[in-house]
Amino acid sequence: MAPHKAPDASRRSDRSRRAIYDAALALVGENGYRRTTIEGIAARAGVGKQTIYRWWPSKAAVLMEAFLDLAARAAEQAVPEGGAVPQGGGEYGIPDTGDLAADLKLVLRATVDELNDPLMEAPTRALTAEGIVDAKLGAEFIEKLLDPQLALYVTRLRAAQEAGHLRADADPRIALELLIAPLTHRWLLRTHPLTHAYADTIVDYALGGLTPRP
Predict the structure, then answer these.
(1) In what helix (H) or strand (E) does residue 13 lie, and over which residues does it extend?
(2) Model-level pTM greater than 0.85?
(3) Is the C-alpha dihedral spanning 154, 159, 165, 167 positive or negative?
(4) How many helices (H) and strands (E) does the chain have?
């Protein structure tokens, strides 16, 4: 008779965490941040409420970790399409092929795909909206998710400056806002469709300027 094998606690924990992540993201997308509760997440995930409180101190902590996990998975899936690519140490960064415009268009197109992905869109909108009125949540959203992504742009733009492909006196933090802000504005307000063609045009305008060329 084969010996009884004890359940793998780590696998059980991973399954529970994944179920909690999925439940939290689904509920915040369906009901909004404020109407999402620990009790609701636990019920949707099929776990006890105390299981959640054992791992996270608050609803905000659950949702933030779930969203960071979702963003990480989205970044990994974007790699075959030419989005953020692994750099030294396994971190992700914006490609540097020597063609700044092409590299930025590649990444902005991947961003368009993420924002248009139904799995990403609902929780992103909910957390973004709540972060506007909840200063603490907004600061955490910026620190843990937004700033690390913006740092990738800063790194790529500084490399372009060193290579002479970008004005030496340009502030990379302001330059990246010329790329990111239009996408965010159109996506948040739904003023017009968010497309790859629009992303390409943003890069052309940001790098080429709007004044007539001699």
Answers:
(1) helix 9-31
(2) no
(3) positive
(4) 10, 2
